[in-house]
Design goal:
The longest helix is centred in the first third of the chain and has 18 residues, at about 1-20. The radius of gyration is 17 Å and the shape is globular. Helices cover about 40% and strands about 20% of the residues. The protein has a four-stranded antiparallel sheet. Helix 1 packs across helix 4. It has helices at about 1-20, 45-60, 65-70, 75-90, 145-150, 160-165, and strands at about 100-105, 110-120, 125-135, 140.
């Protein structure tokens, strides 16, 4: 019975991954006004970062967007696109029912953020999970580690994830 539930959850996870790595509207502009504060460090606008992480995370799993657009929200997305495409082919129509909902974002001092999220199947929560967003350049992306962790739930470690499974 328990292995049956694990198989269902693994299928949902893989459907979610195959469903995407989405896009959102890029509001563009850096409209920051000059400041009179004397500061030698760069700080991250926590609210803006949390909003971007949430939008990009949901977009990553947005099956309404083309796959090549969705992988732009994934760390090393160009390299991982064949893996995501493979998972999409395996799951077929199941992928279209999965989405994600971000429940909480906690920014870290090292350019990462912890993301608590749920995988939804036809709008119903089926798997609470945690992952990591990474700041790459000026964009917050779903980490490769998160993708590989989700794939591992299905009981497999593709070569693209071997370094992560080995702790690297």
């Amino acid at each position: 019975m328990r292995s049956g539930r694990r198989l269902v959850l693994a299928t949902v996870v893989m459907a979610l991954i195959a469903a995407g790595c989405g896009g959102d509207d890029d509001d563009g502009g850096d409209d920051a006004a000059p400041t009179t504060e004397e500061s030698t460090t760069t700080t991250i606008d926590e609210q803006a970062a949390t909003e971007e992480i949430t939008q990009n995370w949901v977009a990553f799993f947005n099956n309404q967007l083309p796959l090549d657009e969705r992988v732009t929200y994934l760390e090393d997305g160009d390299e991982l696109q064949p893996l995501v495409e493979q998972q999409a082919q395996i799951l077929g129509e199941q992928a279209s029912q999965a989405t994600a909902q971000v429940d909480n974002v906690t920014l870290n001092d090292d350019g990462t953020a912890n993301v608590e999220f749920q995988i939804l199947l036809s709008g119903q929560p089926v798997l609470p999970s945690t992952g990591t967003a990474v700041l790459v350049g000026d964009r917050w992306l779903v980490s490769k580690t998160t993708l590989c962790d989700l794939i591992a739930l299905a009981g497999t470690t593709p070569p693209e994830c071997a370094d992560i499974a080995a702790g690297g």
